TrEMBL record:
The species this protein was found in: Microbacterium terregens
Ranges of compositional bias, category Basic and acidic residues: 235-246
Boundaries of every FHA domain copy: 146-195
SMART domains for this protein: FHA
Residue ranges of the region described as Disordered: 224-246
Name of this chain's protein: FhaA domain-containing protein
Biased composition range(s): Low complexity: 224-233
Keywords: Phosphoprotein
Pfam families: FHA (PF00498), FhaA_N (PF12401)
Amino acid sequence: MGLLDSFEKGLERAVNSAFAKTFRSGIQPVEIASALRSELDKKAAVVSRDRILAPNTFIVHLATADDERMRTLGGALADELDTLVHKHAKSQGYTFAGPVSITLERDPQLSTGTLRVNSSTAEGRVAWRGVLDVEGKRHPIVKSRTVIGRGSDADITISDSGTSRKHVEILWDGERAMVRDMQSTNGTLLDGRKVTEAGLPPDSTVTIGRTDIVFHVVAQAAPGRPAQPAADATRAYDMRDGGPLR
């Protein structure tokens, strides 16, 4: 299929559009994607006639200069890599033993422009987290009650004059969600239907004024036991959470 298959091409397009950044030397984000794809293919193992198990925990070792460049991309790179790992696994018929985890780690012994990937298959419980996509930004739901509106005292403030200061609230108990209109002037829509209070299914859209709020439930790794020995490395950057280096 050439030097770049659909996996790398997908990330290359994402890098060009979402990151709008070209590095003059060193590792490119598309090379990390290619290395992860290769690691999936190399470590995938047939465990039954209808199941091919692939690693789900990845540590990407980068030279100091490359690691610094990747940090400037923040959570956008994390989201793209995670999405494309899942897409490649689906296209190849791979399954995972638990949630996918991708970690960047600085390795001073590596030369700029080189990388190394360690992977393992880790079983684990799945913890579910509610998130809201609003105006191009993802907001994890960290409270049982999240107020959204144009007022500065709302938990999530939006720049939409068609909304009330406290327009709508999202209720989340860790498993289920509800949406409740807060006696707003222009009302609240759930998937195009006007509601005062309703259950909020995953991937549904709440509309207030001209603003769409998309509710998702995403998986994140909870403590579990490794099914295969994990690489002997210290986590430096949690890509799924977009956390800072430490």
